[in-house]
Amino acid sequence: MFWEKLRRWLTGFLALAGLQLLEAANQPHLATVSINGQPYISVVGWSSLYNLSSRWEPKSSELRLTNRWTHLEFKADTRRVEVDDVSVNLSFPVLRVGDRLYLALRDEETVLRPLLKPPRLPAGRKITTIALSPGHGGKDPGHIEGSRTEKYYTLQLALEVQRLLQKNGFKVIMSRSDDAYVSLEERPAIARKRGADLYLCLHFNSAGGAEAPQGLETYCLTPSGASSTNDRGNNGGSARTGNRWDHENLQLAYQLHRAILSEIDFGDRGVRHSRFKELALAEMPAAYIEGGFMSNHEDAKRIFSESGRTRFAAAIVDGIMAFKRLVERGQPE
Q1: Do 97 and 133 fall within a single domain?
Q2: Between β-strands 216-221 and 129-134, what pairing exists: parallel, antiparallel or unpaired?
Q3: What is the pTM of this model?
Q4: What is the pLDDT of residues 12-38, one digit of tens each?
């Protein structure tokens, strides 16, 4: 009775705003509205499914949701949500209608649901073998800052991650272990042929300008029907497919990003979506780390120093371990 009354009220309200009410096929207690051709849902209505209490800040257009396990912050007209103080990018903007915020249904399905209802691996499947892909190599130097090349520092970081993973009992596959060029197509193929359970690309950013950007970006593959973070339009590339690991990809990127931020004073540029070729071709859960800007003084100190890379590598391993515990939960040791 309550939901039917709410539905009737929402239908009338949205009609006044010129919006169409639809049914959310996968959530019987939610209704969707069509905004700019995309199905949207009420954030407050959705939050009830997770027993989240809400607090609306009309002056800042921010909505805070909390329960005993998690907290989220939404802000109108942005494509970001804070999940336990970690910035996560959405494919579509959160929109305000009156004093209500609306979330794209595709973002609920591909971003928030995997975070709030983490996927589990099939019984008996374990995370034991990690593939590391140090960016660039050989004829491809990557970014260059003075005499320093990205290809050198991605390899140094990967070697330290390899050492720490092996210390923790993992088998590690390297797409390259020296200054060799390996094509983007070959790297995930190597991981597949050697039975990797996770695939991790390691890169560093660089940018010009008087005030060089700073901070950490962690990417996963853009799911089907969603937009990549760096797409200019809301619907860019949305017809392309993701892969069978979309939910695991998002959770892996989130756990890595969260672990790194908790241990290193990075700027948080967010968990992001992209259709980088390595992510698109990976046949296992995969993530892509842009570990700071070589062109930024503070980031460069971490990238170019052995102690900084050791600390960074330890945080990456912590993120992998967090993901492993989460997706293997309930399985016998």
Answers
A1: no
A2: unpaired
A3: 0.89
A4: 444 334 444 444 444 545 789 999 889
